[in-house]
Write a structure and sequence with these properties.
Blueprint: H1 22-38, H2 44-59, E1 63-68, H3 70-87, E2 94-98, H4 116-125, E3 130-136, H5 143-154, E4 159-163, E5 175-178, H6 193-212, H7 229-243, H8 247-256, H9 261-268, H10 274-280, H11 285-290
Length: 292
Amino acid sequence: MQKLSETEKINKNTAYLSTLNLDKQIDLMNQENLRAVLCLKKAKKSLKQAVLLVAKTYQNKKTILFMGAGTSGRLGILEAAELPPTFSTLPSEFKAIIAGGNKAVFKAVEGAEDSYEQGSKEFLKNAKNVGALITIAASGNTPYVQGALKTAKQKKVPTILITSNKNASKENADIFIFLDSGAEFISGSTRLKAATAAKLALNMITTLAMTKCNKVYKNYMVDVKATNNKLKTRAVRLISLTLNIPEEQAQILAKKTNYKVKEAILLGKGKTNYKILLAKYKGNLGEALNAK
């Protein structure tokens, strides 16, 4: 018999939630939410392993696949969707699948997470060029997720499981990320602290992996894909900050390079061979700037 996950236990700190006034409820929820943030400290070792795996997978031009059910599945979809505009990744490089298919993004599909076979089947259907599987499950034992993990393991695809249950099955997870978010604010509602902790973990893994892949300079988002006015304005601002020039001058450089921040910065430094430099230094802007 499996031990009860912490996320399913009654939270003693919030036992009298319904009897409190709103001010106290807000204070209490803020207090509980802090645990979701702080619990990532304890998971540093496994998070580091995940960052290195994702960076290596990306550099090897393999796909990183997210899989999960319900809120966990939606977190994977959100992560995959936000990476292209932030780091100019391709949609084929980070993909996400949710139990129940696309309709489950907007509406709960009851029972979709209960099929071990479906998780396995959907992994196989999307396994082409996959170099790493990241699964998210608050309980860690979701059949859909465990099915995907086992099949990926059999296919020798490195696997990650992000969970808030230390007793979850880790047999098929090469990297087991336990986030000790504790009993939920409202008993069993894992869209709260467990989901918050998982989102923070995903942010950390992808952001730091992309940083290792030379998509960040200082703390500037220099690989931003400027596909709208907001992002174009951001690109111009980053060029201006890096070169210490007025935004009007940065705008000219941005237009000449189709708003590719790294290229514009190098051009602003007189390096007209910016494409060659970026290729030589694998996108590392700092090294390209210092090249003789």
